[in-house]
Design goal:
5 helices, globular
Amino acid sequence: MNAKESPAQRSAIMRAVKSRDTTPELKVRALLRGFAPGYRLHRKDITGNPDIAYVGRKQAIFVHGCFWHGHDCARGARMPKANADYWRAKIARNVARDAAHRARLTVQGWRALIVWECEIKDQAALEQKLRAFLFGAET
């Protein structure tokens, strides 16, 4: 915690972190509109509540923040100094929950793709990854 932030201020900051319609998610959706429209958003009736779902194809796309979902990139590997035990446990729970959701989707006949926040920077590579998932061989 920054020395200038009170616990109440830090709590307000954390509450403001969005779980849907994030900037990375909006960028993925904008890219998909160009070559694969027809997706549905945040379907609660699908295991894991995917950010983007192609229901007829049984394809789900999750747009994950690197920190929140424990990605192994520089941003995801960064651990807060304050309350480190709490954050390690929280992120471990998120990772376990994500794995359980993917396993259940597979059993239900769905294919799932994770797009990491750090992948948004390279639009060409991201588009290639999305096209391969949606139209090509299994990813």
